[in-house]
């Protein structure tokens, strides 16, 4: 059969065209999303303490919030940064499904609110919790502006 295909160039060309056409039709009919939502199981907590030194932010904000975070299960690791007037805590959860992740984020929110109301200084603003997903972590487009003067 292979010999017959090699000898008959018209049949070979038609077969190649048929395969290419079938592939193109299949590709065009594949279901897809333009920007699918991907959850990385990360959360970031940002807390503002106006006018405080980095050491004060570490002792009075970051450390108590880290203690509250320890009460939440399924956490892989926690990384924190304290700087003048602000605290940033990055929480990485283990690989869990979307529903469990939502429950853990709600647990985290509840623990942060309890700690905020009970122990943090009055000047500290309420901690803001952000889930890191592909839609808010990675922009779809980046524009660079240059001045040609």
Descriptive report:
With 149 residues, the chain is of the alpha+beta class. The protein has 2 domains: 1-32; 39-133, Alpha-Beta Plaits, CATH 3.30.70. It is built from 5 helices and 4 strands; from the N terminus they run H-H-E-H-E-E-H-E-H. It has helices spanning 2-7, 9-28, 54-69, 98-118, 134-137, and strands spanning 39-48, 75-83, 86-93, 128-133. It has a 4-stranded antiparallel sheet with strand order 2-3-1-4. Strand 2 (75-83) and strand 3 form a beta hairpin. Helix 3 (54-69) packs across helix 4. The longest helix is centred in the C-terminal third of the chain and has 21 residues, at 98-118. It is elongated, with a radius of gyration of 27 Å. The mean pLDDT is 86.
Element order, helices and strands? HHEHEEHEH
Give the tally of β-strands: 4
CATH superfamily of the largest domain: Multidrug efflux transporter AcrB pore domain
Report the major sheet: 4 strands, antiparallel
Low-confidence runs: none
CATH structural fold name of the largest domain: Alpha-Beta Plaits
- The radius of gyration is 27 Å
What is the total number of structural domains?
A: 2
Helix content: 40-55%
Examine the secondary-structure arrangement and name the CATH architecture of the largest domain.
Answer: 2-Layer Sandwich
Could you give the distance between the termini?
69 Å
Mean pLDDT: 86
Structure classification? alpha+beta
* Number of helical regions: 5
Strand order of the largest sheet: 2-3-1-4
Instruction: Please state roughly what percent of the residues sit in beta strands, choosing from under 5%, 5-15%, 15-25%, 25-35%, 35-45% or over 45%.
Output: 15-25%
At the first level of CATH, what is the class of the largest domain? Answer: Alpha Beta
Give the overall silhouette: elongated
Give the oligomer, counting copies of the same chain as homo and different chains as hetero.
Answer: single chain
């Amino acid at each position: 059969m292979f010999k017959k295909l090699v000898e008959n160039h018209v049949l070979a060309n038609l077969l190649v065209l048929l395969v290419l056409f079938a592939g193109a039709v299949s590709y065009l009919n594949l279901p897809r999303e333009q920007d699918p939502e991907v959850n990385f199981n990360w959360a970031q907590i940002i807390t503002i303490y106006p006018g405080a030194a980095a050491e004060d932010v570490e002792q009075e904000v970051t450390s108590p919030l880290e203690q509250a975070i320890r009460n939440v299960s399924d956490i892989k690791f926690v990384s924190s940064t304290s700087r003048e007037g602000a605290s940033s805590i990055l929480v990485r959860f283990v690989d869990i499904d979307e529903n469990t992740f939502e429950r853990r984020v709600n647990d985290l929110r509840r623990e942060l609110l309890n700690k905020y109301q009970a122990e943090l200084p009055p000047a500290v603003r309420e901690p803001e919790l952000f889930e890191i997903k592909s839609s808010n972590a990675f922009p779809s487009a980046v524009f660079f502006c240059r001045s040609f003067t």
